[in-house]
Write a structure and sequence with these properties.
Layout (H helix, E strand, L loop, with lengths): L1 H30 L9 H11 L6 E15 L6 H9 L5 E15 L3 E5 L6 H9 L6 E5 L5 E5 L10 H12 L3 H15 L14 H12 L7 E5 L7 H16 L3 E5 L3 H7 L2 E6 L2 E6 L1 H12 L1
Helix pairs in contact: 1-2, 5-6, 5-7, 6-7
Length: about 300
Amino acid sequence: MRTKVSKNRQMHKKNKKVSQKNRNLTKTYHRDHREDDLEQPEDLERLEHFELFDERETEIKVRNVTMEFKREKDEATSLKELFVRTLKRQRNYEKFKALDDVSFVVRKGDVVGIIGTNGSGKSTLLKIISGVLKPTKGSVEVDRSKIQLLTLGTGFDYELTGRENVYLNGAVIGYTKEYIDKKYDDIVRFAELEGFMEEKVRNYSSGMVSRLAFAIATVRDTPEILILDEVLSVGDMFFRKKSNARIKEMMRGGSTVLIVSHSTSVIRENCNKAIWIEKGILKSAGSPAEVCRAYEKKNG
């Protein structure tokens, strides 16, 4: 009996040491990462070392991901000029990095906010994680069958009616016709578009389009991994409150969630972790309060 008690005390002391080590690593990471050196590889390795002490299941592992695109120098101003340049082989391209050696880990049940200025590679990162794009270098470990990517307006045809776009957009997302038939009335009701579904979408206001897109994207059951690309700022103030409530309901369902938002208040209110990406470079990762503070200091 004494031996058992002694072992329990030893285990308790060991756990306390590990917990204290985690806290020290976190404090050190944030203390050292308040200026422009946040992307240093050795510091990210230190954060990864900290993640090893988290016993929860790893849901997403992004390892040294780089994404390069080609863009044309001095784009042609007309079809004729483009045709001539093509014939003469005078089209010159340059490479640019949308993401540059990005690494992080997301644990099961995490709600992770991703912030950064326009053109920093946030949406590109989400598309790589969900499998829409393949990275130039690096890898992503994730079960993509668990993922639902919500990005508004994908798959809309403005020459079709609202009803036709429900079926078109739903098919793009991956819904079957039978599923859409079953959920159609719920979609229309949530989007508050009763009486407008036989109108062509080109006659909708931008708010109406956003409401319809959001209603279609969120009508399904809560997925295990939910990725939200700028969907928490949909519509007017009243619909935004309604849409935020639906997203929070999905979060409470136990999903692992990635949120891209320009709003630090959205990240602070909804996330337990945050990642700051600037011009393709991972600048900071950690608690929402610390990461948002560093982001606001740099861009405020």
